[in-house]
Write a structure and sequence with these properties.
Blueprint (H helix, E strand, L loop, with lengths): L3 H5 L24 H13 L5 H15 L24 H13 L4 E3 L5 E5 L11 E6 L2 E6 L7 H4 L8 H18 L6 H11 L6 E5 L6 E7 L2 H7 L8 H16 L1 H12 L5 E7 L11 E5 L5 E9 L4 E6 L16 H13 L9 H6 L3 H19 L3 H19 L2 E6 L2 E5 L13 E5 L7 E6 L4 E9 L4 E7 L1 H7 E6 L1
């Protein structure tokens, strides 16, 4: 006997799904804001989620990762403990900490120095990860030394207030001046003697005559005030790096074909020349990245232009990002997010890189750090897109190489403790058709970064955001591959 319902109607099968059930993204599962947005954008693009769903999840994502920017303690100042310490500073910090421990002095603790650590008497540390015992808020506690706040007492008041690079520019100018003036070999101590003899006023011109050729040689050195004071201070030449750089500069002016060829032309042209050597380190007043140049006194003919780099520095260019200061330099208020975006867009646009897809995220995301991350990630994506296909790749490489040449400004002389090297960035022109590069977005813990490497991951060029309490910039750094390709001369001391 059939059930009654079979007599009343046909049994309809439950409809089978046409596709697998789509699992909606869960914003709680994303490790960070950038990853979340990238995944949502990909799902919205391939139709997995609708625009309406994307908008809702994007809003949820913002609320989850929302960080309110504090203009008193922005993100780049929040990690001011000793956990962020350069290796060359470790011994200084440990020495100053031990001095404070001997005095049982109170020390600020935490990322902003917001708490006070009172150490237990009789302690001494050898490493920054050594434990320290004491009290915070009246409670016994054990901390790692590197959790202490990087205060002035720990950093040390004796830290030099001058820049080795700027002082070296002045020494380089003096080395050229003496080489054009003298009819004998120049050594490192001659440069120190020349500084103390000739330099009296920052930016003033001094003139002397080559006794053999009768050429009139002038020198003008113009540096930031602290660096000028250091240049003419005899104690500065006790600094081991300055002593080594003086020796390397003497090596350059006596042995480098880069300079000797021009010097010989002046000496053998059978006429009396009037020559100016100018070392201009006042970068805020410079129209180019050239640091030292030689020209005829008429000012119309320049014979020699060089960008000077010293020590272990890898930076050779920078561009503003809208300032790191709470206020604009003219005190008209804080930089808006729109103004910062304009700086970023122009910076990358000058290299032929389109970051327009990051504009909405840059303007909307609460955290300024995340905003810059978006712009750098968009730059890496755009570069990789353009570094495919023969014609597009050649155009993109040419843009990168021309930008590199523009940042360098001229031939570059790198002065370091062991000698010197001369780099000519025009060598890059011949490599446009034979070089394969790729871009990688690889941010640090605190700042965004884009690296450009070859197929074997050798670093060619690096862009990174650098900022502190006083300034901020997009910094352009040389990789070992770029240095190797462009070097035309190198000599050890």
């Amino acid at each position: 006997m059939k059930p009654w319902f079979e007599d009343e109607a046909d049994i309809l099968k439950f409809p089978l799904p046409k596709a697998k059930v789509i699992r909606m993204p869960n914003v709680q599962e994303y490790p960070d804001f950038i990853t979340g947005v990238s995944d949502l954008q990909a799902k919205q693009k391939d139709g997995t989620i609708s625009q309406e769903t994307y908008d809702k999840l994007y809003t949820d994502l913002i609320h989850r990762f929302m960080k309110k920017e504090s203009f008193d303690t922005p993100w780049y100042l929040r990690e001011a403990t000793l956990q962020r310490t350069t290796p060359t500073s470790v011994s200084t910090y440990i020495g100053n900490i031990n001095q404070l421990l001997q005095k049982n002095a109170k020390m600020p603790y935490g990322k902003q120095g917001e708490k006070t650590f009172i150490p237990t008497p009789g302690q001494k540390v050898k490493k920054l990860n050594d434990p320290l015992t004491g009290k915070i808020d009246g409670k016994d506690i054990s901390i790692k030394t590197n959790q202490l706040y990087k205060s002035k007492a720990i950093k040390g008041s004796e830290r030099k207030s001058w820049n080795v690079g700027y002082v070296s520019e002045g020494l380089f100018g003096m080395g050229l001046f003496l080489a054009l003036l003298a009819n004998r070999s120049i050594v490192g101590t001659d440069i120190q003697t020349g500084v103390l003899r000739y330099l009296k006023t920052n930016g003033a011109k001094v003139t002397n005559t080559n006794r053999k050729t009768k050429d009139k040689i002038s020198l003008q050195i113009y540096l930031p005030l602290n660096d000028w004071k250091a240049l003419i201070d005899p104690q500065t030449f006790d600094h081991p790096e300055i002593l080594a750089h003086s020796k390397s500069i003497a090596n350059y002016v006596m042995n480098s074909e880069d300079f000797r060829n021009m010097n010989n032309q002046f000496r053998t042209n059978k006429r009396i020349d009037r020559i100016e050597v100018i070392a201009d380190g006042r970068s805020e007043q410079k129209a180019t990245t050239v640091d030292v140049y030689i020209r005829y006194t008429d000012g119309r003919t320049t014979r020699f232009e060089r960008s000077i780099k010293s020590g272990k520095v890898k930076q050779f260019g920078q561009a503003p990002v809208g300032g790191a200061l709470d206020q604009k330099p003219d005190n008209t208020g804080r930089y808006s997010r729109e103004e910062r975006w304009d700086y970023q867009e122009k910076f990358w646009e000058n290299m032929g890189v389109d970051i327009s897809k990051a504009e909405n995220d840059f303007l909307d995301v609460p955290s300024l750090k995340d905003a810059f991350d978006f712009s750098y990630k968009a730059a890496a994506d755009s570069l990789n897109k353009e570094l495919t296909g023969d014609k597009r790749e050649r155009i993109t490489l040419r843009n990168i190489f021309r930008s590199t040449q523009r940042f360098a400004g001229a031939k570059m002389v790198h002065i370091y403790s062991g000698g010197y090297r001369v780099m000519d960035f025009k060598k890059l022109d011949s490599l446009v058709g034979s070089t394969n590069l790729k871009a990688i977005f690889n941010p640090t813990e605190n700042f965004p970064r884009v690296s450009i490497t070859d197929e074997k991951d050798n670093l060619f060029l690096e862009f990174e955001l650098k900022t502190d309490k006083y300034k901020a910039s997009n910094q352009i750094n040389m990789g070992p591959l770029l240095k190797e390709i462009t070097t035309i001369e190198k000599r050890d001391n």
